[in-house]
Specification:
The complex is a heterodimer.
Chain A lengths: L1 H17 L7 H17 L15 H4 L23 E6 L2 E2 L12 E5 H4 L13 H5 L7 H9 L4 E5 L7 E6 L6 E10 L4 E8 L4 E10 L4 E8 L6 E10 L4 E9 L3 E10 L5 E11 L4 E10 L5 E11 L3 E10 L7 E10 L5 E10 L5 E9 L3 H9 L4 H17 L5 H19 L1
Parallel strand pairs in A: 1-5, 4-6, 5-7, 6-8, 7-9, 8-10, 9-11, 10-12, 11-13, 12-14, 13-15, 14-16, 15-17, 16-18, 17-19
Antiparallel strand pairs in A: 1-2, 3-4
Chain B lengths: L1 E10 L5 E10 L4 E5 L6 H9 L4 E10 L2 E2 L5 H7 L1 E4 L6 E5 H15 L7 H14 L4 H5 L1 E2 L5 H15 L3 E5 L7 H14 L5 E6 L3 H5 L4 E6 L2 E6 L2 H18 L1
Parallel strand pairs in B: 3-10, 3-11, 6-9, 9-10
Antiparallel strand pairs in B: 1-2, 1-4, 4-5, 7-8, 11-12
Helix pairs in contact in B: 2-3, 6-7
Classes of the chains: A alpha/beta, B alpha/beta.
Chain lengths: 430, 251
């Protein structure tokens, strides 16, 4: 253990010595220095850490990112048909020309780099706060690293129900880019906001989003991580939910050498709802996708759902680490967790670690995890009706993923992603 | 239409001989029925013809209009015009019935080098065929066979047959699990499809289905062979006397 700790401390010191943040307002400097101290004391993760045993973090720890080829999808942008406010980042750098004016009724949108320079701003009470809370009981060093060294991001405050979604668009143009973005979102009482995230972002991307949802507020999040085969991403979504509030997040991942999506949610007000879902499709032994979720019930009568589906083939690897923690007094909790994989061949693997930890006695918590092959009877039934096996397999694959996609409330967004998935599968066939 | 010659089939896994020399010739426009006790090989015959895994043909042949169907993949057999109405239709959660039907129709059209049917035309076609089988909009929207009653599943099979318009239809114990009303509905659906160019092979335990779907020829199968063939009266004989007498007679 001591040897591992020493090793981690040494790699962490090396990494931190290369990184600096730009000085800003006092509160920002303090938050970032504190985060840097958190990283220094935790140390960046190693494969031998319990929470990283299924996903090797070394390429995320290294000082320089592994170059990633830029992939030209040659298709219409995801959610291109949806009326949305576009905020564009290219390799982690804000692109004002490509972005819409940051104005929308009922929303306050600023760039994080701008907020960092303001002496007085509500961001000071949120920046790094939920991330820091999320470090216990499980350490999340990359999120702390992000808080310390993020170069930009958006800071959004919603005060009303905003129907037009905000789309954070992440382009990847530089094969060696290493982007760190940090977003802050505050949903005020009774407000409603939808944030979309699309694109590969960078060769290596570290992104954190902290979301504070006040009573009766609602936050919807739909994400399509870019299809660049060689990109790497570690993301942290930290949310805190007030009374009768709602948080709903869905992520679609197709391709990517390495993706680790962590989601940390605290239900702190009664009658709140948190749904986190994801669909991942991977083809090839260079695909590794990891969903790590931690939901804490710390109030009465809250509901949480985790629905994760992965389709893996040709040696692709999927990981799910999901936890529901029900604190003492969090009675009438309704917690649900399902993680499933469809393994299209014998080379692919799915590693799942579902966990429940319950300290209240009047709760419903269920969890399940399955790995399976395609249903041969269903496949034959389709073939006997004239559907060729590749197409039949696609149909059954989409059916498998449907439960996760159904978690998206906005039908137009869901339909767009469904079509992308169909196209992705069809390309694999040809 | 369908010609089966000296067909021998065994299970792939355990070398157990199931069909021991089946000969059958079904002419265009004719309805043949195969009856027989449990374990006689009736369902195996339907599975082998449709191309299900797990069976090995050790001898003999089966051709559809002169084409060797045993060499074809299941989807090629379907495109060639062969259709099996399953004894146990498969449930496919997550795949809508309409999507399933449209995919099947378009797949077969593509195999024949035809264009996809337009969404509007397809909807019209389905509505018309579904109405006759008393299949409502809800059943079309739901996932394939999921939560369907036994009768609904069988009606859904006939709907697929009606939409795909195969030339050789095999009905594997389509009457099992049906009440009298459902049997009538299903039979009417089948009878509506009868024409000079389309043939049927109706596999059943009981004569009662044959009251509704009148066969031209009835075969009795036992121990992997067709042991007796005759007209519709043969089915009545089975109904009245059981298989015992017939089998004793042929032994």
């Amino acid at each position: 253990m001591q040897a591992l700790r020493d090793l981690k401390q040494s790699t962490t010191r090396t990494r931190l010595s290369d990184l600096k943040f730009e000085e800003g307002a006092a509160w920002a400097n303090q938050s970032r220095a504190a985060a840097r101290d958190r990283v220094a004391s935790m140390g960046l993760p190693h494969k031998r850490d319990e929470y990283w045993k299924f996903t090797d973090p070394s390429s995320l720890v290294e000082a320089q990112p592994t170059p990633a080829a830029v992939f030209e999808a040659g298709e219409t942008p995801v959610f291109g048909e949806v009326d949305r406010l576009k905020i564009v980042f290219v390799d982690g750098v804000f692109d004002a020309d490509a972005s819409d004016p940051l104005e929308i009724e009922g929303l306050e949108i600023l760039r994080l780099s701008e907020v960092f320079t303001r002496d007085i701003h509500w961001a000071k009470d949120l920046y790094g706060v939920l991330e820091a809370r999320g470090q216990s009981p499980v350490e999340r060093p990359f999120a702390a690293l992000n808080t310390a060294f993020a170069t930009d991001g958006v800071v959004i405050r919603a005060t009303v129900q905003v129907s037009r979604p905000i789309n954070l668009i992440y382009h990847h143009r530089d094969t060696k880019s290493d982007a760190i973005l940090h977003h802050l979102i505050k949903v005020e009482e009774g407000a409603d906001l939808t944030v979309l995230e699309t694109g590969p972002a960078a060769a290596r991307f570290n992104k954190v989003m902290e979301i504070d949802i006040a009573d009766k507020g609602a936050f919807h999040h739909v994400r399509a991580q870019g299809r660049d085969h060689e990109r790497r991403a570690v993301t942290g979504t930290f949310a805190r939910l007030g009374t009768e509030s709602a948080f709903k997040s869905f992520t679609l991942t197709a391709n990517g050498v390495l993706t680790r999506n962590e989601c940390v949610i605290e239900l702190t007000g009664d009658d709140a709802i948190a749904h986190v879902a994801g669909a991942a499709v991977g083809d090839g032994d260079d695909f590794h996708h990891d969903d790590t979720v931690f939901i804490t019930h710390d109030a009465v009568n809250c509901e949480s759902r985790q629905v994760f589906k992965k389709v893996l083939r040709n040696g692709a690897v999927g990981v799910f680490q999901g936890k529901i923690l029900v604190k003492e007094g969090a009675q009438k909790t309704d917690g649900y967790q399902i993680s499933q994989s469809l393994l299209l061949d014998g080379d692919s693997q799915f590693l799942a670690k579902p966990e429940l930890e319950i300290y209240a006695d009047d709760v419903i918590c269920s969890h399940g995890s399955t790995s399976g092959a395609i249903d041969e009877d269903a496949l034959f039934y389709l073939r006997s009706r004239g559907v060729e096996p590749g197409k039949a397999t696609d149909l059954l694959t989409l059916a498998f993923l449907a439960e996760a996609l159904d978690e998206i409330e906005n039908e137009a967004l869901a339909e767009d992603l469904r079509h992308r998935l169909e196209a992705w599968l069809a390309r694999r066939r040809s | 239409m369908l010609t089966i010659k000296d067909l021998h089939v065994q299970l792939e896994e355990e070398e157990k001989q199931i069909l021991k020399g089946v000969d059958l010739e079904i002419e265009p426009g004719k309805v043949h029925a195969i009856m027989g006790p449990n374990g006689s090989g009736k369902s195996t015959l339907s599975y082998v013809l449709s191309g299900r895994d797990g069976y090995e043909v050790t001898k003999g042949s089966a051709t559809l209009d002169g084409e060797d169907i045993l060499e074809m993949e299941p989807e090629e057999r379907a495109a060639a015009g062969l259709f099996l109405a399953f004894q146990y239709p498969v449930e496919i959660p997550g795949v809508g019935n309409m999507t399933f039907l449209r995919t099947a129709v378009n797949s077969q059209r593509a195999a024949r080098g035809e264009e996809d049917v337009s969404a509007a035309d397809f909807l019209k076609l389905i509505r018309e065929k579904a109405k006759a089988l008393k299949i409502d909009a809800d059943m079309l929207k739901r996932p394939v066979n999921v939560g369907f009653s036994g009768g609904e599943k069988k009606r859904n099979e006939i709907l697929q047959m009606a939409v795909l318009e195969p030339k050789m239809c095999i009905l594997d114990e389509t009457d099992s699990g049906l009440d009298v009303d459902a049997m009538k509905l299903v039979s009417d659906g089948v009878n509506a499809l009868r024409n000079a160019g389309r043939s049927f092979l109706v596999i059943t335990h009981y004569q009662r289905l044959l009251d509704h779907i009148k066969p031209d020829v009835v075969h009795i199968m036992a121990d992997g062979k067709i042991v007796k063939s005759g007209g519709p009266e043969l089915a009545l004989e089975v109904e009245n006397n059981g298989y015992g007498d017939l089998l004793a007679e042929t032994a």
